[in-house]
Amino acid sequence: MKKKNAIIYILLILGALMMIVPFGWMLVVAFTNADITYNMTLKNIWNSLSLNSFRTVFSQYNTGRYLFNSVFVSLMATAGQILICAMSGFVFARIEFRHKEKLFLLYLATMMIPVQATVIPQYILMNKMNLINTYIALFLPGMFNAFGTFLMRQYFKSIPAALEEAACIDGAGFIRIFFQIMLPLSKPGLAVLAVTGFMGAWNDFLWPLLVASDDLHTTLPLFLSQLQGRWYVDWSVLMSATLISVLPILLVYIFAQKYFIEGIQNTGIK
Amino acid sequence: MRKMNKRMMAVTLACAMLIGAVGLTGCGKSADEGSKAGEEVTIKYTTYSAGPDHIQDLESMIAEFEKQNEGIKVDYEVIGYSDYFTKLQTQAASKTLPDVFEINYENFINYAQNGVLLDMSTLAGDDEDFKPEMLSGNSIEYFKYDEKLYGLTEKFSDVVMYYNKDLFDQAGVEYPQADWTWKEELEAAQALTKDGVYGSYSPVQYYELYKTVAQNGGALFDEKGNPTIDSKENTEAVQWMMDKMYLYNIQPTPEQMSGKSPEDMFKNSEIAMIRTGSWMLSTFADAGFNWDIALEPGNTKKVHHVFVDGMAASKTTKNPEAAWKFIKFMSVDPAATKIRLESNWDLPVANDATVKEKFIAQGKPESREVIFEALDTGIMPPVVKNNSQVQDAVNEELNKALIGQATVEEALSAAQEKVAKIIK
């Protein structure tokens, strides 16, 4: 029994190392310089510690603005996603109407179409609406998410119908039931949606690449791509910028972790 | 009651969406008209080569341009090179290309053929301040298609041989000479390869391939554009590329490099001779050893890479005159040329004898004139249909040879077959 545990621990530690080593490497290069990769001893790292690349990142580029853009766009997309997915998930879980299942299947089927196939029509649509290079274009498409709808539908289905019936008897309408009964009950599900939605919006690259076309609307992933020159990359600067772009998502995850795990467990089959 | 509610909600939602859509388009349109009414025009410029380290140089060029041309404002956008053409294609497909954009020689034809570029022949012809001779050599021809001028060459870069003088001195080997061939390179590299130092390095990929086969008298495509990838000359050349690693051990294999870039290894004195671009001059400037550049050794022929960046305009631009002025400025204007030279941002195209002098006078390394000498034997990347697919196919097969999954002959004949299908 003990032996078995030891093996499991060793495997888990190895797995953790595989995740952590690249991250540590990034930290070291970000806080020193790119040449460190060839002589990575503790002494060398200690001697060449500096904030130079962070200074470069903030003084030579509009990094503060990019950071704001990323945060703003991700928050808007997440907020929209929570509202829209929760509402549609509620409808699909609780309200009966004709062809509901078919409609739901159709909605789910959109998950099968790769982004690359829809991106040009979507771009043309945005262009016709005169929205190219605006914040609206950056977060609007991200607000609709078939997976999020599916997730919320599953969650709502797991809440006993009796609660809703009781509220209905007390005279509450759909809107009241949704906002005052269902939403508060589904916090763990919402947390999962918020974290995945935020991460998706935060890391999204292709769509911002297409619709953002000036410095004022550039998001962090675009900035990271700009930092990679055609012929040469300053790794230290790139790693500093990457670190800056990773930190917020790390914070979101740490704070939402409790809900996140609970939520994933509960949305499964019960 | 319930049914009623649902219908009401649906109708309200639909109304809200409609109002939203109309309201939004309304806003956009009025803003657009506002800019047209004003005296000042703004043109949009997209670039890949300014990022990440020449953004400030680009800004000073634009400032100079705006000073010279009152009433024209330039908004620029920098996109990373690896994603640049993804965006450009989407914009071309939806007819929203920026007014002016950077484009390189090998991708130019595709856009010219698709008819999305502005024909500037008349603009250039009517411009009294412009003469084709203002561009050096025959570079006015590079962005012509079907006799029409679709762009101007903006700048060049080329590839030469960089070498670590200190390592040569330590090994007691003569520095690379202009008349060296692969044979002399091999002999020197064998003497240099010791104590964790590799004698020589050349990349193994499409761009290196078309040049290396040309150095052996071969070519990837014949004059009609048909692939000749598995020719005898090409096979020999690729065999040489492989032998340097697996037979003579003078070049590190991918495993031996374990993810390090060859340029970093050169800067760390782990490689004595490296073929890389003129864009590395400033990056190597602070290396902790003496180094210089020389012409590349060829086998039966002397050949060097030349890369050409150009500027083109969108066919749908509302301000063709302003676009032309900006393109002309970036290509041949003395002020722009000066900024380009001083910031080491590739080689200016302006036909001006002092350009070369100024470039050479910049000091380290000693033999700066080599960068210009290499242009005399320069070849440009092959221009073929579906350029990026061709590159991918060739790289894939080349990689198989590199990791030992196929012999050189097998890899090249497989590449020949694939490419023949792609460009059909």
TrEMBL record, chain A:
Q: Which UniProt keywords apply?
A: Cell membrane, Membrane, Sugar transport, Transmembrane, Transmembrane helix, Transport
Cellular compartment(s): Cell membrane
Q: Name one GO biological process term.
A: transmembrane transport
One GO term of the cellular component aspect? plasma membrane
Name the CDD domains for this protein: TM_PBP2
Transmembrane residues, as ranges? 7-31, 66-92, 104-125, 131-151, 190-212, 232-256
Q: What is its main location?
A: membrane
Name the Gene3D superfamilies for this protein. Answer: MetI-like
Membrane topology annotation: Multi-pass membrane protein
Tell me the protein family, please.
Belongs to the binding-protein-dependent transport system permease family.
Q: What is this protein called?
A: Multiple sugar transport system permease protein
Source species of the chain: Anaerobium acetethylicum
UniProtKB/TrEMBL annotation, chain B:
Membrane-spanning segments: none
Question: Which keywords does UniProt give here?
Answer: Cell membrane, Lipoprotein, Membrane, Palmitate, Signal, Sugar transport, Transport
| Pfam families listed in its UniProt record | SBP_bac_1
Task: Provide the coiled-coil residue spans.
Answer: none
InterPro entries linked: Bact_solute-bd_prot1 (IPR050490), SBP (IPR006059)
Keyword field contains Lipoprotein: yes
According to the UniProt entry, where is the signal peptide?
1-24
Cross-referenced PANTHER family, in alphabetical order? ARABINOSE-BINDING PROTEIN-RELATED (PTHR43649), POLYGALACTURONAN_RHAMNOGALACTURONAN-BINDING PROTEIN YTCQ (PTHR43649:SF33)
Q: Give the protein name, as stated in the record.
A: Multiple sugar transport system substrate-binding protein
